[in-house]
# Entry
Amino acid sequence: MSDKIDTGEITISCSVCKCDFTPTSWQNKNGKLYPKYRCQKCDRLSASKYSKKNLKIRLLRNMEYAKLFPEKIKARALLRRNLMSGKIIKKPCENCGNKRVHGHHPDYSKPLLVIWLCSKCHVNEHKRLAEKRRIEGGL
# Structure
């Protein structure tokens, strides 16, 4: 008889360390599990190794991004400094009330004016804005 309690959740074995874990939402999209899935610990270790191995490439990409979008970099840095100093305090998501939020800048020329959105609502906001641009552009 197994010691495991059936909670109704799927548990799978990590493809690296073979421990059992419950897949996250990105590992279980539309009920289809990805062929190579790792527990959180192994996934972070893999990402860390990749990051160190490809440091120069990442730095070049970051520099290119900064040249293309300097206003975004400045706005994000200013917001981050104000959050760390306590001058600005995060609020719950303006759409759903989730407390894990991102600061969405509707206008980068006003770097401290942000809309607080959870990850899901933030993605939906960018989709809405992309659709609006598509319609306005006549594409």
